[in-house]
User: Fold this.
Amino acid sequence: MTDASIHTQSQQQEASFGDYFALLKPRVMSLVVFTAMVGLLAAPGGLHPIEAFCAILFIAIGGGASGALNMWYDSDIDQVMSRTKSRPIPSGKVTREEAFAIGMALSVMSVVMLGLATNLVAAALLAFTIFFYVVIYTMWLKRWTPQNIVIGGAAGAFPPMIGWAAVTGGISVESVLMFTLIFMWTPPHFWALCLFMKSDYRDAGVPMLHVTHGRASTRKHILVYTLLLAAIAIGIGFTSVGGLIYLTVALVLNALFVLGAVSIWRRSDADCEADNHKREKSFFALSLLYLFLHFGAILAEAALAPYGLGGW
Amino acid sequence: MGFRVEHELHKRRFGRNVGVALVLVAFVVLLLGLTVVKVTRGDFAPQAVGQSAS
Assistant:
């Protein structure tokens, strides 16, 4: 290989700033930012705006760092699956070593900085979230059990709890319920996607529920989790972060969500093929709106509380 | 080749270097702001001898 060939190859695969940023999974980070912000603003008490900004930023960076470590460990899977083939490591733009270094450096930095900006409880929760996502989910459960998405969903559920802890320095019923809302929402959301997406998990050797137990079992699981989710979502309405606005939103959305889950449960594979997974797709779209509006309603209650309009 | 001639590598990595520089500057500004808030509020003020004894 000549110098010229090295240059040509490196020119083709040179990583841009955006490629390194893509390691942090920006789309997942947007959910982390929103839910952490709601947890932080709904908590009793308050932070200085700069402290609040720092808290949300470092929670987001911590989430992004765990995404980079996930891409480092799962690069073999990402190479096989069409959905993830274009990620920075399988596309050859960033090396695994670089992703590991960035993930580790940002993990440590985000935890230390969150601790300095707010308190040790919030920092410890962020550290545990990163550990849970990278070690428990990515390294252990993802390749081992079809319940991977259920347990792995916990990692995505921590941000509102960390936001709450950043203000209060502790954990409460409200923050645990916000955690549980995302935790119970993740399985039906993700399994609905699995039902209509062309899946290459089998080729990648990842034991997803619809691969190991079939589509009928997945539909049943969606219904069970949706019913449990509805109970939790409505229950939040009776806590200090709930109120009339939240309860109204929760009742309407959960009625729609349960109806959607029941209709999916009643369908067969032939029905799905006949209408090109129309109901699964609309259920998935509703799930996105579901989470956004629930947390939006909690935010609205918190924003209106100073004017005597939000909360109970 | 003159010493001042820019290497092709520098041109290629210009965007990335600017991005990293901006992130570092933003981080320094954020730390400064956070420090000002903490110090102004007295988070790091040493306790008086009488207070610590009581």
Q: What stands out?
A: Residues 172-312 of chain A form one domain. Confidence is low (pLDDT under 50) at residues 1-11 of chain A. The first helix of chain A runs from residue 3 to 12. Chain A touches chain B at residues 7, 11, 14-17, 20, 48, 50-51, 53-54, 57, 116-117 (CB under 8 Å).
